[in-house]
Design brief:
The protein is an alpha/beta fold and 325 residues long. It has a single domain, classed as Alpha-Beta Barrel (TIM Barrel). It has eleven helices and 13 strands. The strands form three sheets. Strands 1-2-5-7-10-11-12-13 form an eight-stranded parallel barrel, surrounded by five helices. The protein has a two-stranded antiparallel sheet with strand order 3-4. The chain has a two-stranded antiparallel ribbon with strand order 8-9. It is globular, with a radius of gyration of 19 Å. The two termini are 19 Å apart.
Length: 325
């Protein structure tokens, strides 16, 4: 195995499996995911990421898929890893009281010794909201209030806020984690979501776009980036002061090609979803294309995800290390 020596200019993260039957068959037990996290850290992965779903109903499926809760997994990962950054991709803000969420984030900051990236979003899968009793209406309005509470608490340690949906009156965050300004805040954005893009431009340190919004290619990312630049201009924010990240689908030779079975309406026919595949040099070049487009941090959605396929990423990281020198 090869451990990154710090000279790689492109940070490479890995999404860990939580949803039943996705990124591999069956239910993934914590012991299995913990082993995957250790292998990923050993081979030189820079960050580990968890999604935030409670149940997930795929289009055309009769039953919803189960999913392990994100923050519980993140807390456990903080205790069993030493070097990798730990991020949420992304937390559904409407499921957690924002002031308590800031407290939770700073606590995992402490457990991890300052390795958290707090990825946040408004949520989108109504099935989960309804099943667990969370209000689905006014999602973005609720998010816009909540992010003011979270960001102020993490950055200054105190907030006094009363809105239509949320309040935190004379709230203080004590004790504080190892970083004075708390963990960086990342907001997930999509093409065609100007309001969320403006909120990200106003409050975030980082922003993320997922492969289903870029069709898993650099040109798709550039389209979203152009929209985000407009949002930054509207908010008076220099876009270069926010760090972009892109989640990229990468497939091992053993993967079930589910992307070939997607409805034709899911992506434009002229730009269907295709994962990055090939030998280590080809995949490394595909990842570096994002860096050339100005992306310093990517997250791999690896199909399938298990210890064997994670170990197979080592030659790709070695290629990246060579090309970064």
């Amino acid at each position: 195995m090869s451990v990154a020596d710090g000279s790689r200019t492109l940070k490479v993260g890995l999404m860990l499996p939580q949803v039943d039957g996705m990124s591999g068959p069956g239910v993934r037990r914590w012991s299995q995911v913990a082993d995957m996290a250790r292998v990923a850290e050993d081979i030189g992965i820079d960050s580990l990421w968890v999604v935030d779903h409670l149940i997930y109903e795929m289009v055309g499926e009769a039953e919803a898929r189960g999913c392990w809760e994100a923050w519980s997994f993140l807390s456990a990962l903080a205790a069993i890893t030493n070097r990798v950054e730990l991020g949420t991709l992304v937390l559904a803000m409407g499921w957690r009281n924002p002031a308590l969420l800031a407290k939770m984030a700073d606590t995992v900051e402490e457990i991890s010794d300052g390795r958290v990236i707090l990825g946040l979003g408004s949520g989108y899968h109504q099935r989960e909201f309804d099943a667990f009793g969370f209000p689905y209406g006014y999602k973005v309005s609720r998010f816009e209030e909540a992010i003011q509470i979270v960001s102020k608490l993490l950055r200054t340690g105190e907030v006094d806020f009363k809105g239509k949906f949320h309040s935190a009156r004379e709230c203080v965050l004590k004790p504080r984690g190892p970083r004075r300004d708390g963990p960086p805040i990342m907001i997930g954005t999509n093409s065609g979501s100007p309001r969320m893009q403006r909120i990200a431009a106003k409050y975030a340190d980082m922003w993320n776009v997922f492969y289903d919004n870029t069709a898993n290619n650099v040109s798709g990312y550039k389209k979203v980036k152009a929209e985000f630049d407009v949002a930054c201009k509207d908010e008076g924010r220099d876009p270069d002061t926010l760090i972009p990240s892109v989640t990229t689908l990468v497939a091992d030779d053993s993967a079930d090609p589910w992307w070939d079975r997607l409805p034709t309406s899911h992506f434009a026919e002229e730009d269907p979803l295709k994962p990055l595949q090939g030998d280590p040099a080809e995949i490394a070049q595909g990842l570096l294309a994002y860096e050339k487009a100005g992306v310093p941090h990517i997250q791999l959605a690896l199909e399938p995800t298990d210890c064997k396929t994670i170990e197979a990423l080592a030659p790709i990281l070695e290629e990246l290390d060579k090309l970064s020198r």
